[in-house]
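Known limitations

Files may contain more than one protein. Parsers should not assume a single record per file. Below, a two-record file is shown to illustrate correct handling: read the sequence, read the token line, then continue until end of file.
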Amino acid sequence: MPISALLSAYRNGTKTATAEITERLVTITKREPELGAFLTVRKEQALNEGKNIDAAQDFSKPLAGIPGAIKDIICTAGERTTAASKILENFVPPYDATVVKKLKAAGYISLGKTNCDEFANGSSTEYSAFQQTKNPQDLTLVPGGSSGGSAAAVASGECVFALGTDTGGSIRQPANFCGVVGLKVTYGRVSRFGVMSYASSFDTVGTFTQSVEDAALVLEVIAGQDEKDSTTLAAPVPKYSATLQQDIAGKKVGLPKEYIDADGLDPKMRKVVINAAEVLKKKGAQIVEISLPLTKYAIPTYYLLVKAEASTNFARYDGIRFGHKTKDSGDLQDMYRKTRAEGFGPEIKRAIMMGTYTLSAGYYDAYYLKAAKVRTLITEEYRKAFEEVDVMLAPVSPMLPFKFGEKSDPLQMYLADIFTVPANIAGICGIAVPTEKIGHLRTGVQLLGPQLGEEKILNFAWHLEQAFQE
């Protein structure tokens, strides 16, 4: 059941929070041995919280008794938070991230922490230090990444919603691979306080849900300015769920030709986008072809900047302040080397080497500074495009979900993000919404909106969702 239906059931007494939590825990017990979506499950705590809500009979809060899950890169007080890395295998934060505090205040019940690529650095959840997460649609396929655990947990019915992070597509791509709704917010729309940083000027916190309405309801809870995160925006939080059904007749939908005609785009995925455009056209929207010529620079720009920021952020894991510390070391430098060699996985080591090289003397101007300038140009290109159209419609991924080990070449994996990273570069919002099936795999499209354009993309996504359910 969606969130609104669950809350109604709680309020009219046809269902209890305890029963709902129990059902989800049964699903987790049944699915987890093959699925591997969770790193930590809060079985006893979740049941007790459900019983407390039922005893109080207060279902006035927006997420009262609603079972959710949290990507294991988001801090939870007194509960292990690992970022799927051995270097933080036994780390227990003393505080909650702001988004967790807001969810608790709204009455949600956490079922646990979900698996991800180590420090959110990956596109398949193959780079977790602890386990692989499988795609619930087909266990031979990856669920996408880095938030693959959250996507798989929602897609398999293990929870109603889950939080993830999107630095370059890490919500939209796994949502698309697993056939659920994935919302990437405007940079600064949701607080990052208490979220372990990958690339600080790109990271965003968003949602995985079974429906667009649920995405709107959870966003209403977690969005807003936070004094503990100076990058959050001083903008009011609309009631997103109230504007979902607004008419889209006469509104303009941009089809970027650099996305639709891109080399490497699977023709079947292109057809999915064209079908979605036809649906929106039938609902009265105008379909407009637009051009974003700087798209071809998005991947190199993104990876130069992101790896530079990552190498700086990962410097805090030194074996002294928190996390793993080697048991066998000589001087300080030796301790640093051995701690990081033991604690970090291959993709994190690659990020540190790439980023440090990019920022090093003699290369900073040639690489990092130039990429920063291109980022400004790409941001401006999107800003101007949104003066002409309300939203953009595009593929999420150039391909369907792939098999484990299929993208062993790091460059191949990076190129899989070609349609998602531009939104992070420009700091705009986007949503992946499933529309149809290709074979046995549910897949869909993404809608991109301007900065703080979440109302627009949720509105269009709702119309697509309704049309393909009919």
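...continuing to the second record:
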Amino acid sequence: MNAVLLAVGNELVCGQTVDTNSAWLARRLVQRGIQTLHHQTVADDRAAIAEAFRDAAGKARLVLVTGGLGPTADDITRHGLADAMGVGLETNDAALAELEAFFRRRGREMVPTNRVQATFPVGSRPIENLRGTAAGIAARLGEADVYVMPGVPHEMRWIFENRIAPLLPPAAVRIAERTVHAFGTGESDVGAKIADLMARDANPTVGTTVAAGWISVRISARADTAEAAAALAGESVAEIRRRLGDWYIGAGEDTMSSVIGDRLRAAEKTLAVAESCTGGLVGRMITDTGGASDYFLGGIISYANEIKHRLLGVPEPLLAEHGAVSEPVARAMADGARERLGSDYALALTGIAGPTGGTDEKPVGLVYIALATPTGTAVHRHVFPGDRAIIRRRAATAALNHLRLHLVRRMGP
């Protein structure tokens, strides 16, 4: 079975609100072996909604719709569905009684505009909503089963899980999805390594996405049983990991900080940070992982030169001669953090995140990252593209990656 997802609302079309409902539904459908053909966002326009219903029903056997079931004048999804079906709206007495009871239970008076939530296209039926006033709608349009749910996420999720999912047919095919994460290279480089695995008609299907330098390889395997699909996906994960080599970070829910944390914990080593341009972002990323207190001692945000000197021991002549954004200062910051916080490892970052402050010699995006270890300190020079937020995030992730690579080479894959 294939599906089309529709999300209705002016706030979605104009970008005021992000459509998270369709992403959630698509993931749930995959778990049932149902492939989503496309997502469509539709404005609060009756004719456009009706056309979207007709188009979706002509392409898929299942149409899931969210939004536009409220009591206000712009909530016209039910009207658009009725137009697509070629019928009018009628009041469902049982739904109206439940709606009135909902308000009585909360000690509120139901205003007349709420009555529209008890009307449904002729030939359709209401879907119970125990989380709000907007009942869903189940209808048949051509060869497609259509289910309309409210746009409020917790209401939509409850209706789908408890009232719609049990109605869906057993999966004819099982789909297993996995994700592999890479960092330290470009998407095109990753693509070149796995090009033959990305053939359009392959099973598993393989694709890539990128965000702030983090490259994710998506794997979707189809088979007759869940076990066979999982086995196919697992083989692809292993092969992609082998091909990526040092670019491979982890899979699934792994993050850079969780992978580093596991290695530091296993080695019984500790970490400290000294940050300037990232302003504490590295420390935040490390502590986003639960249990970071096992290995993370803390950090010093040395934004001002005075703090670099006073708390990290960076010599004032060094700052005067080379400037805060320089290899010698980054090295001194890392050594100072390691010594003063008593850690096994220390990361230090100093750079120009912009949007101002850059020169020909030291452009915006220039960041020096130093890694102090028990055997010495290495400094890496980077020039990151992007705006201030992107530069800071890429710098923080790159710093963690330098530590990860050191630990991999020391401890093995």
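Parsers that stop after the first record will miss the second one. For reference, the second record is described as follows. The domain at 2-167 is CATH 3.40.980.10 (Molybdenum Cofactor Biosythetic Enzyme; Chain A).
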